[in-house]
Amino acid sequence: MDQTRSYAIVTGASTGIGFELARRAAEEGFDLLIVADEPEIEQAATQLRQSGAAVEALQADLATTEGVDKLIAATKGRPVDALLANAGRGLGHAFLEQDWNEIRRVIDTNVTGTVYLVHKVGQMMRARGQGRILITGSIAGFMPGSFQNVYNGTKAFLNSFSLGLREELKDTGVTVTCLMPGATETPFFERAHMMDTPVGEAKKDDPAMVARVGFDAMMKGEGDVVSGLKNKVMTAVANVLPAGVTAKVHRGMSEPKGGQQH
Predict the structure, then answer these.
(1) Is residue 149, in this structure, part of any structural domain at all?
(2) Is 116 a known active-site residue?
(3) Choice among 30, 116, 147, 151 that is catalytic
(4) Span 152-185, pLDDT tens digits
């Protein structure tokens, strides 16, 4: 790789929003280190190289500190100009019916792994006095997440964490941007066991559009951005309705059509 070119890490980059974020970064002249916990990351790298970008692929489990350390080691000390922390995992159905190991994996991927990665890369960026961090939150973080409860809680954390960290770093040359998408056409809902829900069956946003909005906001150094007009409206409504009401609304979107399992 040409060390004079800008260098970006994109996590969760094998499919969906993460892949499109990586594609956008490649188009803008970044060399890439793309990461996911599945072998499809190699296919993603092959596609991205067709744009002429230098792309390294890494399969690592970013739900673990060991996986994050493996990612840091893969940079070989090269300064990171942009970290696009997009890796995330969802989980549908009623909380008490969910498997504990799947619950723990959502928390470890969305919260623990993301925070550890941002802590490691953020320290290096601050020491250099420059860098851009994009964290993929969600409009789900604005609503109590009936039948998607742990996921919404993790996204509420990320939304808050991103904006708090941005304020801490405001005079350091490091910017933090939070991308807050709504339901997007990716493998997310299938992996989260949510294909039998109204939101799982509904028309969703184009991941390329979502990535473009997020990437452009990161490059401008903006604090947070909600992708799509419909999602902006939902966020505004969620901010004024009582939490009990939004929890009921969320149930209407996320409860399996067969009703709650017992």
Answers:
(1) yes
(2) no
(3) 151
(4) 999 999 999 999 999 999 999 999 999 988 766 6
